[in-house]
Design brief:
alpha/beta; 3-stranded parallel sheet; 22 strands; 36% helix; 14% strand
């Protein structure tokens, strides 16, 4: 069933009031790819009455009052994307298109949506129930952070949103505990995976430099960020405390990783895989083209690329669904009357991390002095592609399935480092799961820049292309690699782009088209470099292109056809 969006739908369900109302910056897509829908279905499955208000008019009360006031709490999210990223390009131009808005026109999601929606609730519901904020925008802005669009250090979003609780990371466990505590009038302050504001500091927690200190001193901001980043692992993390005037931000340790049974239970819930009819009548939602017939296999990412926030939000440990759960979902997709036989994607943040694991990581937490796959794959990581090979074979055999594609990114370095099954996996991809082009993301070709990005060296790229071309020729396939590249990353000069242009022309034999300008987003090391113009590990000053013209010049040099 869809979560109700109107009073009429409540009446049909026989509900007089809702326990929880979720407010989202995306239109309401009832899919496991929508965080708002997942949280809503998890709460519904636990016996709570949940409704949703998607993309409310933030200049009036006509939408926010539509479902009345909840009995337990409001849940507020910007949607699947940070609203500032959704609304602006890296060149500060307003985006015209929004894939999560009916009709595709970017006119429904306000800038800083979490703050706007939270204050909208406060405006029309005085002394209301607690406001709980979550999702990517809240999660990555939970402490003092550099904001690219304001070009300054902003407070934790909790203060500006005037919210009561912030759920960070993947919030299913925390949200169920919050609901249970509020239903029984028990305090929620000790729940893992949340932040809140307190009049008193938490003495046993790590005390970060205060907001005033980090706003004025870049060295203090760097010190704070190192401590924040090191305390994201649910096994080893300590609680954090940061002073804001006469109040304190309290961040409890992260929620525990989900077990396979727990993640299976979440993805086995019945999702409609469609836009709610109330919103669907307003126009087509482009995001449905890629997510409706796609399957998530796992969460988390070992990569920890310095420009990417996935590891901070989803964690570095991989939590994989069982083969049984994934096949069950595929069989449900086959019975959809609109399914034409093509599963668009089977993957996660990185497709070929499915069912890989590291016992040391799960038991003792992330290593402090060693990365999982940079500069090479750690020998303690069970980098085994066999489980995904077997999964893909079983998905292909399901009656009604014509083709199963891998559209999620892959780590080609992990394929090269898997000496036992890497080649077999690549053969499977090329023969059965590539739709003409296979997307990979080297991001750059200069070793110094790659090091700043925490991306693998070009020796992996050259070897992967060699194997890809060889297998294609053997199978007589006319398939290609598509390369995603980043321009104007901190530390990258125009000279570096010149060298990259020469490399991709001579070694990869391509004219780059998939090039994006680096966007500084909260809670990443690359954003820290951008703000401080300093290497955070050595303290050395570094070049950072900050002018819009300079950034666009770097991109144009790579993409310009000469």
């Amino acid at each position: 069933m869809f979560l109700p969006t109107t009073k009429e739908e409540l009446s049909k369900l026989g509900w007089k009031k809702l326990d929880v109302i979720i407010v989202s910056g995306d239109t309401y897509i009832d899919s496991s790819y929508s965080g708002a829908a997942v949280i809503g279905k998890v709460l519904l499955n636990a016996g709570y009455k949940v409704g949703i208000i998607a993309q409310p008019d933030f200049k009036s009360d006509k939408d926010i009052k539509r479902l009345g006031e909840p009995e337990l709490f409001w849940g507020v999210t910007s949607g699947c994307v940070d609203s500032m990223v959704a609304n602006f390009t890296a060149s500060m131009k307003r985006r015209r298109q929004d894939d999560f808005t009916p009709g595709g026109v970017n006119n429904r999601r306000p800038d800083r949506a979490v703050i706007v929606y939270s204050n909208l609730i406060r405006q029309y519901f005085r002394n209301t129930k607690p406001i709980v904020i979550g999702g990517i925008e809240a999660s990555l802005r939970r402490i003092a952070h550099y904001d690219y669009w304001a070009d300054r250090i902003r407070r934790s979003i909790l203060f500006d949103a005037k919210a009561d609780i912030l759920v960070y990371g993947m919030g299913e466990k925390a949200i169920l505990e919050i609901a249970a505590r509020l239903r029984t009038n028990q305090p929620p302050e000790d729940i893992r995976g949340i932040s809140y504001i307190s009049k008193l500091p938490k003495e046993e927690y790590i005390h970060l430099p205060s907001f005033d200190q980090v706003a004025e001193d870049k060295k203090k901001f760097t010190e704070m960020f190192h401590t924040f980043y090191r305390n994201n692992d649910p096994v080893t993390a300590k609680g954090l405390c940061q002073q804001y005037g006469d109040r304190y931000l309290i961040q409890n340790p992260p929620a525990r990783n989900l077990s396979q049974d727990e993640i299976d239970k979440i993805y086995n819930l019945e999702y409609e895989r469609n836009v709610h009819p109330y919103y669907k009548k307003e126009g087509e939602v482009r995001a449905m083209d890629t997510i409706r017939f796609s399957i998530t296999t796992h969460r988390g990412c070992y990569g920890e690329c310095n420009f990417c926030a996935i590891s901070v939000h989803q964690g570095t440990a991989i939590t994989s669904r069982s083969e049984k759960s994934i096949i069950r979902e595929a069989k449900n997709i086959v019975h959809d009357p609109d399914f034409k036989g093509y599963i668009q994607d089977v993957g996660g943040p990185t497709a070929n991390m499915y069912s890989t694991n590291c016992d040391k990581l799960l038991i003792h937490g992330k290593c402090v002095k060693k990365d999982c796959i940079f500069p090479t794959t750690c020998k303690n990581l069970d980098n085994n592609h066999r489980p995904q090979i077997e999964l893909l074979k079983k998905l292909r055999r399901i009656e009604g399935v014509k083709k199963v594609f891998i559209a999620s990114g892959i780590r080609y370095d992990m394929i090269i480092d898997d000496k036992e099954f890497g080649d077999e996996y690549l053969h499977e991809l090329i023969e059965h799961h590539v739709s003409g082009q296979l997307k990979i993301a080297p991001e750059h070709t200069e070793e110094r820049v790659l090091g700043l990005m925490r991306k693998p060296g070009t020796r992996y790229l050259k070897e992967f292309k060699k194997r890809f071309d060889r297998i294609n020729a053997k199978q007589k396939k006319n398939q290609f690699l598509t390369y995603y590249l980043i321009a104007a990353h901190p530390g990258c000069t125009l000279e570096d782009e010149v060298k990259m242009k020469q490399y991709v022309s001579s070694e990869l034999h391509i004219h780059p088209e998939q090039v994006q300008i680096f966007t500084p987003t909260p809670s990443t090391y690359s954003t820290l470099m951008y703000y401080t113009e300093t290497n955070p590990w050595t303290g050395e000053k570094m070049f950072v292109e900050k002018s819009i013209g300079g950034k666009e010049k770097q991109k144009k040099f790579i993409t310009h056809k000469r």
